[in-house]
Amino acid sequence: MRTKRCPALLMALGLLIALTAGHEPVAGADMTVRQRIDRLVQPYMESQVVVGMTIGVWQNDQETFLGYGHLGKDDQRLPDGDTVYEIGSVSKVFTGVLLADAVVREHVRLDQPAGELLPPDVAMPRHAARAITLQDLSTHVSGLPRLPNNLKVADPANPYANYSADDLFAFLKAHTVRRAPGERSEYSNVAVGLLGQLLARQQACTYEELLNKRIVAPLGMTSTSITLDAQQTARLATPHRRDGQPTSNWDLPALAGAGAIRSTPRDMLRFAKANLVPPEGELGEALELAWKVHQPIVGDRGLPMGLGWHATRRGNLRFHNGETGGYHSILLVNRDLQAAVVVLANTANGEIDALGQDIMKTLGGATVPPRKFDQPVTVAREKMERYVGTYALAPGVNFTVTLQDDKLMVGLTGQPAYQVFARSPTVWYYKVVPATLTFKVDENGKCTAVELFQNGVRQTAKRT
């Protein structure tokens, strides 16, 4: 699941961190790899990109787990290989493997029209060219939108909790497909969520039951589930928004296959190792079938796709990332290197993707420089006070700037107030979204306006 401020389901030290955050000790861990990862992680921790995260690495038949930060803003425990996180859209890979498993067992076909698995009273949207197939749903070329248009969000902190299977089927009945399947690549949470529903219905069970029976239990993934027991809950990392503030866990009853799974770095490496060298039997055949590229690049958009997996244009690497309201994840599996990387973080920040990619590059022998992030500067309270006020961005839409506990907070009409951070005394930036605010100050020291810069567009809000 990927999200910014709205429920758009998706596509992270040196001696200092070693002393303040620590690592989970692992027998036989490669210290050279550890030192390289520490160096890459350092700017993420110093810039507070995440509250906490665990990195898992598999290479040369060695498993390494490195924990950084804390389980929560108010929970000072160190994350480790057994910390539980929401993995968001990495769940789509598991749904792809479940599809492959159903094909291997001859329960379904990849080219089977998805509508054949729906209840009799639900008609699958169809384009005149051809029906939407199960493979189309898994590879994001179905023509279905990113999200269903009948999603009514009762709680923005848990936006999918009230969306039911009946709601999903009602969406399908009313939706019109505007282009042929395969014509365009468009990432669709509703498509993969629907696929999970269909596969579970075909086996007369829930998605979670199917996941456990066909993947989780056979691979010994003892901490991977959707519904957590008391022991797993005790190891669950607290979710945080991009600005570092605690938020809620997500529940996705109807779209579970798109992003509802919770897991640990240890379990995710178990899954990754099974994809590096698939075991014998039906599950191994399913993993191999899901790994295979089934959808080439459509036009000049996107990447090739396996079943659930994103594939690189060159090499034998598969990956997927994910984000819910308070977590971010990325899993990379490279058969050429016989290596895997998983990064699970308890903060909804997409910067984690670059960290996972950089770690994989180091496993391949590349020298990767650490990333650079904005370092907030300190601004005197009396200077911040001159920004406090209301600024009109558009009719009925205002920025409201307040000062709370020496933190500059900015709210937009109809939205919560978020903290902004100083790049200079007049230029401030959000952590929740990639946007900056520049306060315009006249020769008398009075702030007359604030300029918003977001998505390449500048807009000025005058002080009222």
Description of the molecule:
The chain is an alpha+beta fold and 464 residues long. It has 2 domains: 85-363, Beta-lactamase, CATH 3.40.710; 381-463, Lipocalin (Beta Barrel), CATH 2.40.128.50. It is built from 13 helices and 16 strands. The strands form 3 sheets. Strands 9-10-11-12-13-14-15-16 form an 8-stranded antiparallel beta barrel. It has a 6-stranded antiparallel β-sheet with strand order 2-1-8-7-6-5, sandwiched between helices. Strands 3-4 form a two-stranded antiparallel ribbon. The longest helix is centred in the N-terminal third of the chain and has 16 residues, at 31-46. Mean pLDDT is 91; it is low at 2-31.
Give the helices and strands, then pairings.
Blueprint: H1 15-20, H2 31-46, E1 52-59, E2 62-69, E3 85-86, H3 91-104, H4 134-138, H5 165-174, H6 189-202, H7 207-219, H8 230-234, H9 256-259, E4 262-263, H10 265-276, H11 282-291, E5 310-311, E6 317-323, E7 328-334, E8 339-345, H12 352-363, H13 381-385, E9 389-394, E10 397-404, E11 407-412, E12 417-422, E13 427-430, E14 435-441, E15 447-454, E16 457-463
Antiparallel strand pairs: 1-2, 1-8, 3-4, 5-6, 6-7, 7-8, 9-10, 9-16, 10-11, 11-12, 12-13, 13-14, 14-15, 15-16
Helix pairs in contact: 2-12, 3-6, 3-7, 3-11, 6-7
